[in-house]
Amino acid sequence: MTAVLVVDDDPGILRTLGINLRARDYEVELVADGRTALQAFADAVFDVVLVDLGLPDIGGVDVIRQVRATSTVPIVVLSARHESDDKVEALDAGADDYVTKPFGMDELLARVRAAARRGGTQARQAPIEAGELWIDVEDRRVERGGEMVHLTPTEWRLVEVLLEHPGRLVRQGHLLRTVWGPASERDTNYLRVYLGRLRRKLEVDPSRPDHFVTEPGLGVRFVP
Hints:
Layout lengths: L2 E5 L3 H13 L3 E5 L2 H10 L4 E5 L7 H9 L6 E5 L4 H10 L3 E4 L4 H15 L8 E3 L2 E4 L4 E4 L2 E2 L4 H11 L6 E2 H9 L7 H15 L9 E4 L3 E4 L2
Parallel strand pairs: 1-2, 1-3, 3-4, 4-5
Antiparallel strand pairs: 6-7, 7-8, 8-9, 10-12, 11-12
Helix pairs in contact: 2-3, 6-7
């Protein structure tokens, strides 16, 4: 499921976008100011960001710059500003697309789909070193303390999803949908069992993990 962060100080637009995106099976988080948006982005994984320029605290362009400093996530601007200079500034800051208000919902949804497709095209992921761990996701090789460790295909899929966003919280629902499929979204036992297996194989002390860290009720993050 594609996760979308929507940032706009207009309650009507937030409500409308939330209804329409969720109706099409997007996972949506709605926020009304820049600081909350940046905190949400730091705490969770999103596939697309929709951001208004006229926010009440941090300007939308500053939000774009701060997101772009750490991520290549596709960013689509939603703005009532039609001037060319505003568009140029937002695109130069790192936005991928610019939609002016009022907009047609069908057009916006098409742009969200296009942005999500662009975001899914990623360069080869470099091997990650974390303490005693060396993990090459592309070649599916992992070592702990210089010794090769065998992971099952499901264990590898779980590792892959977590390593796509090192240091970031990945929500339980996202992990379950991505690794086991939409029908398993509420089967948290799968996640508990497989995380336990990963920790026994990859952590020095599985009871006090350094790298595969659970935040109860929220999700899991890989700590490099």
